[in-house]
Amino acid sequence: xxxxxxxxxxxxxxxxxxxxxxxxxxxxxxxxxxxxxxxxxxxxxxxxxxxxxxxxxxxxxxxxxxxxxxxxxxxxxxxxxxxxxxxxxxxxxxxxxxxxxxxxxxxxxxxxxxxxxxxxxxxxxxxxxxxxxxxxxxxxxxxxxxxxxxxxxxxxxxxxxxxxxxxxxxxxxxxxxxxxxxxxxxxxxxxxxxxxxxxxxxxxxxxxxxxxxxxxxxxxxxxxxxxxxxxx
Length: 232
Ligand code: DX5
Ligand code: ZN
Hints:
By secondary structure, this protein is of the alpha/beta class.
């Protein structure tokens, strides 16, 4: 099944950390488009995960884009390190940077695609004056810090709002911007999430918590297709 304009991005946060290279290969073989890489610093969020050294270690295991989600404060110093470690996309939370416009430019200057991440309570207007520097907008549908949380339903309304802003931008001649969702994405809600406007779907526990990664990814694509059929 090929849906080139949608992207499934399994989150390594729920993978087996003792076998990360193998997990990356397996999930890409199972149909993953991007690898979502959650970086937590026990400061911006109450959890501590993985950094540029681990990104560098998994890089030889796949050619799929590595989507680095920075949940760290401050942000800027670590960006060159992730670019050097082979990251393709780097997103950060604008409240964690003193100068989000400068941080976006820094990411792009290092050859990566750049994006802002919006917590459930963070208003979308943070994107208004930096649209030209965005490749990705990532909406959190849980509070960041942990995998396996419940999808916050109000995110659907926020997705529709973000979709409108992005469509208005591209229709006026702006560059394409992906709309990514992260947190509590499952087979049974991905259709509604796509219908609300998301084109890129992070899923951690739903994929790595299953025995058969391909079955979950295929089922997710099936639900996306069904949702499209309903809206067509
Ligand atoms: C949470 C992370 C997510 C997390 C998603 O702070 O940003 O990427 O891994 O996990 P699930 O899909 O289990 O909610
Ligand atoms: Zn994430």
